[in-house]
């Protein structure tokens, strides 16, 4: 099921473009347009589910995508670590009400949780460069 007003459902359907890192029968992963750090990727279920605590339980189905992408990002982007996060509800900071898991590669020049969330709009050329590096084309 898709929500016609959901930006992530529109990305999944191809109505909105994205820089896809991974996809399988249950999930897709794409680069965040306002990354907290270089390579910040979102893993979302193909099915519209509002959050990890609301709607059908799909986290187990996302596991393979999360595992694959986490390892891919660290390996291909030479990250020194990785944060995995998901917010449930507006009070927790959720802004798009389609379940999504943040995979945030971390680098030694900005360590720790105090340096985690600093979103900046990414230039399209930088997103293309990150995607090429992840895909092994750089």
Automatic annotation (TrEMBL):
Pfam families: HIT (PF01230). The active site is at residue 100. Residues 7-113 form the HIT domain. Gene3D superfamilies: HIT-like. A motif (Histidine triad motif) lies at residues 98-102. GO terms for molecular function: catalytic activity. GO terms for biological process: nucleotide metabolic process. InterPro entries: Histidine_triad_HIT (IPR001310), HIT-like (IPR011146), HIT-like_sf (IPR036265). This is Histidine triad (HIT) family protein. It comes from Microlunatus parietis.
């Amino acid at each position: 099921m898709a929500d016609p007003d959901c930006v992530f459902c529109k990305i999944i359907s191809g109505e909105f473009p994205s820089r896809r890192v991974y996809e399988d029968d249950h999930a897709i992963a794409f680069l965040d347009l306002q990354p907290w750090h270089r390579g910040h990727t979102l893993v979302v279920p193909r099915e519209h589910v509002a959050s990890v605590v609301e709607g059908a339980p799909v986290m187990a189905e996302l596991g393979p995508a999360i595992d694959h992408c986490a390892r891919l990002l660290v390996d291909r982007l030479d990250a020194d670590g990785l944060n995995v996060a998901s917010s449930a509800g507006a009070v927790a900071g959720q802004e798009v009400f389609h379940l999504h898991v943040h995979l945030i590669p971390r680098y030694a020049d900005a360590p720790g949780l105090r340096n985690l969330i600093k979103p900046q709009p990414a230039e399209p050329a930088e997103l293309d460069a990150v995607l090429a590096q992840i895909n092994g084309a750089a």
